[in-house]
Write the structure tokens for this entry.
Amino acid sequence: MGVTYVDGVARGAEGQERAVRFLVDSGAKYTLLPKSVWESLGLRPRRELTFVLADGATVERGVSECYLILPQGQSHSPVILGEEDDAALLGVVTLEILGLVLNPFNRTLQPMRMTHA
């Protein structure tokens, strides 16, 4: 199993931007921004959620929203407001908003096959 990173930009409501190197995590629901990034963008928690980690531990984190710009597209997305030592993660909700999936064979982001209802 390999790891996949994608370089992007997170933009705050006032237009401030930060370059972010995201680990693409197909097992994570939400995208996570480290504390130094979200604070510099002026993000504030809109709600608190409890998350279960891979080891079964639970943590509470604030959730906000920001504009994310990736080479494959851009959109608003919910983001977890991480702690200082947390890694920037690109989660499944953001991938779905952008219409992307992680190809597990070549570890690249590709357009999602859309089906109509």
